[in-house]
Design goal:
Structural class: mainly alpha
Number of helices: 3
Order of helices and strands: HHH
């Protein structure tokens, strides 16, 4: 358990942070598959009720 808690004292180097920043980000909107002219929702605003 102590070993697990010791991870909070570690820091990433600038090189490691730079490598992480280079990882491509792919963020998708779940509404993409539901929002369509013929679908139940005609816009993202109709799909999303404002809650997270």
């Amino acid at each position: 358990m102590k070993e697990n808690l010791d991870i909070f004292d570690s820091k990433l180097t600038k090189e490691e942070l730079n490598k992480i920043e280079q990882i491509p980000q792919c963020r998708e909107n779940p509404a993409e598959f539901t929002v369509a002219e013929q679908g139940p929702y005609k816009s993202i605003e109709e799909f999303w009720d404002g809650e997270i």
